Amino acid sequence: MSVFLVQHGLSLPKTEDPERGLSDRGREETFKIAEVAAGYGVKISKIFHSGKKRAEQTARIMAETLCADPGIEQMADISAMDDVKGLGNLLDPDSNHMVVGHLPYMEKLVSYLTTGREEPKVLKFQNSGIVCLDQDKSGWFIRWTLNPNIS
Q1: 92: phi > 0 → left, psi -120 to 50 → alpha, else beta; which?
Q2: What is the pLDDT of residues 87-128, one digit of tens each?
Q3: Predicted local confidence at residue 70, as pLDDT
Q4: Omega into 104 within 30° of 0, i.e. cis?
Q5: Is the confidence at residue 68, as pLDDT, over 80?
Q6: Quick one: CA dihedral 110, 108, 126, 67, positive or negative?
Q7: What is the DSSP letter of 11?
């Protein structure tokens, strides 16, 4: 079992949607990544999101494909500039939970978990990409990543 971190899908500019919901490309890439993850046998028990429209939409697309019983819940304190230590100290590697959030929070969270510090960045997220983290006796590590693009 693992923990899965996701940067929300590509969103619309504020001029088109003040709430910055997912663009058509963002929905397509999120669905594609969810389908690939499902093909690899990824199962998610619950998905948490920041409450912003683009994160909730990303969570719903992931849940449709990866959750047997779509448990989706808004989580406080995971917005772009929030402190990662709170969630970092609560994550359970046996939970199979997914967290959908924003940059730079998600990148700082991965750094904090794997190195004990928020900087330097150890991983570059992509919109809709999934980062699978696990833990052993030596601590947290990145098990795998799945991204819409290789560039």
Answers
A1: beta
A2: 999 999 999 999 999 999 999 999 999 999 999 999 999 999
A3: 67
A4: yes
A5: no
A6: positive
A7: B
Contact (Cβ atoms closer than 8 angstroms) between residue 77 and residue 25: no
- Could you give the domains of the chain? 3-146 (3.40.50.1240)
Span between the terminal Cα atoms of the chain, in Å: 28
Of the candidates 125, 116, 122, the one whose C-alpha atom is nearest the C-alpha of residue 145 is 125
54 Cβ contact list (under 8 Å, min separation 6): 8, 9, 11, 19, 20, 21, 22, 26
Q: Specify whether the CB–CB gap between 86 and 75 falls below 8 A.
A: no
- Identify whether the C-beta of residue 142 lies closer than 8 Å to the C-beta of residue 112: no
Amino acid at 124: K
